[in-house]
């Protein structure tokens, strides 16, 4: 069924009786060409692009819980492509271009809103770094705009410009950045993949990966064994657990990251604002809630909840940046589990086991990457070689010395 | 989280800096034949278990001691806290 304004009108006039479920609930077949483990944003996007762009239909997406129930439903919905390094920036800019056409492509309202993202500048050194970053963004075809203090005082008068420790001296805008409706992204990809014949099988936990003579043969699940010659892991947050089934150790630690939302308010924030120095970023959802977050809790965790010291730290950052936030009441907070990699950058690669593929290590930047991650992973699965923009996202890059370390923090995952 | 420091008693985890898996104590022999491969594994690969995890915490806002904390990564429950010095010695690293 194609969604359109006309359809909404017709269904409205006929009692809304014609709507059908957005996807099927199929039973698993004994064999598929490709099994994708994990029906999150990236797994569903992979299945979608495999079926739409690479003509593959005999695909299963296996999900332990319900589709879109992991980090795609727990993030702070920001989309942007303001990276520095050549291993990252072209990839994220490809993602941004896919975001810009996502709703037309999937025929699903993902509420992509290019309301801009602003990184604040507090020192001359930071301005130099952001000018360099802006130039790197231009090289990849992205947009960037340097704003001075006077401009920000006009546009965002509520910011605390005269903070004694971090006075605001300007900012780096990416006007094409913004937000998207995170759940709808998963639902749109699921619907698109399902309509092309992909089986999305929920409540189907993978309990083992069958490997014979260095070659993958399928998976064991709670609903029985399923054969496939290509198995694609796509479970960021749980990568360590799933990869362990294949006997792999990864350059990844799992960490918990908290996020927060205030009660609904009238529009007060025009776009996304990031306050790196104070470990705080914030945007306002279409529903009115201020959606914000900060740093990782900092210790290995699979718990999907964090602790109070980080809540305090994040809220202090908010008060330092925009004191008016003190008038809003906190509605909810939650945690998500991140694959924190050893250089802060992700992996889309083959593994040492033939037919077994790995997508993970997204740190806390997986949401914005969803379309390009799916596209590049689909490219790798269908053609057997990396997409040009994802070529550096290798699993063995630490052995080779080709790190993609945006922050220059080294192999300390909780600092990326 | 409260970390029950062996010398100082219960302390808020916010006083500590987290380093990571306690296997970082087991630094490979830099003169071994396979030192490059071993240092790659030591530096970059992690077990990352869901459950019991031994990890290194540094009491930066306290007595500057290194601790080995045994903690459950699913529940955050801490079951054992030892001085890293003692753990290293029992593993034969007395240098």
UniProtKB/TrEMBL annotation, chain A:
Designated name of the protein: Sarcosine oxidase subunit beta
One biological process term in Gene Ontology: tetrahydrofolate metabolic process
InterPro entries: FAD-dep_OxRdtase, FAD/NAD-bd_sf, Rhodanese-like_dom, SoxB
Main enzyme class: oxidoreductase
PROSITE patterns: RHODANESE_3
One Pfam entry name: DAO
Main location as per UniProt: cytoplasm
EC numbers, comma separated: 1.5.3.24
Keywords: Cytoplasm, FAD, Flavoprotein, FMN, Nucleotide-binding, Oxidoreductase
Gene label: soxB_2
Catalytic reactions on record: sarcosine + (6S)-5,6,7,8-tetrahydrofolate + O2 = (6R)-5,10-methylene-5,6,7,8-tetrahydrofolate + glycine + H2O2; sarcosine + O2 + H2O = formaldehyde + glycine + H2O2
Gene Ontology cellular-component terms listed: cytoplasm
Cofactor: FAD; FMN
Similarity comment: family membership: Belongs to the SoxB family.
TrEMBL record, chain B:
GO molecular function per UniProt: sarcosine oxidase activity
Coiled coil: none
Family annotation (InterPro entries): SoxD (IPR006279), SoxD_sf (IPR038561)
A GO BP entry: tetrahydrofolate metabolic process
Entry-linked Pfam families: SoxD
Designated name of the protein: Sarcosine oxidase, delta subunit family
